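Quick one, T. Sequence first:
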Amino acid sequence: MMNFQYYAPTQVVFGKDTETQVGELIKAQNGTKVLVHYGTGSVIRTGLLDRVCASLNEAGIPYVSLGGAVPNPRLSLVYEGIELAKKEGVNFILAVGGGSAIDSAKAIALGMKYEGDVWDLYLKKSQAKAGTPLGVVLTIAATGSEMSDSTVITNEEGWLKRGLHSALIRPRFAVMNPELTYTLPEYQTMSGCVDIMMHTLERYFSHEMNTELTDYLAEGLLKTVMHAAKILLKDPKNYEARAEVLWAGSLSHNGLTGCGRTGDWACHQLEHELGGMFDVAHGAGLSAVWGSWARYVYHSDVARFAKFAVNVMGIPYDYADPEKTVLEGIEALENFFRSIRMPVSITELGVELGEDQMKELAYKCTYMETRTIGGIQKLGKEDIEKIYRMAK
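Structure tokens:
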């Protein structure tokens, strides 16, 4: 097991009607004027935004609002939010929605305290030294952004999708009411389940040995999400299944399932470029490329992939042919994705990928041939092109 630091300071307020506590939670954080940042419709249609604003009014906290966050959140809206928040003297940001609203709010929080162009932080030209505090009212189980130190933003100029990590943008609190996820369409729910699983799988596929406790936590989380996803296909308003998935989303991306080892993250990098170019749902993009990535790299650590196949997917271990176990495990996870109506190829995403586009995606994925991706196996531009081709 490697040396590690684990830091998860977000206060979680979990359960029914917890959104009514927002005003007092912000007051406890010394928030005196709030930017309420949200998406494009569901928080309004369901009355959630009204309930949140009522809680702010009851606590005597003034606020301004900015909607419009979309999947693969846009840099242009971040710029708008920074300008509005500075103009209005905001000292706390409240994201109401899913990962897109939260990631956008995090970018605004950093941009408010940064004198230059906030995009420089995503390009790693500079490092953030301060950020406006923020909180979250979560409406979808997916990205885990409600407890993470990460944010991903898409720049419409060139459609580059880039992320950054900073302890400065860990939310001060996350309000998590499973009932708020009832109205999600099936596709979003299942895409979220894939995203949760992938956040753990990216950490699970690592060369580090002797991480048994971390492995058990990861394996238990994966099996829990798979079980709950099947329930939600038949019963979308099953509170217990919604609660399990919502909590799993936070635990999958707050660092817990990666303690003591490095992660891989190649699939996320592959999907980021797909999302930037074609605006696909993040979880669906991940399920579309995972199997091809796994078949390309499993030779780098047959034992680790076999452990996944046995402990998570229930494949009997073939002592005479461990690679057979691995391939059956990969196929089993793809079959699970199929069973929850998620794509297992780029074509199934509705994207017809041409050779020139594959080369462009690989070029961007390597940051214009200035880096490799992956941990369990280092992948350069040619490797990435091959994986896109396999996933096509």
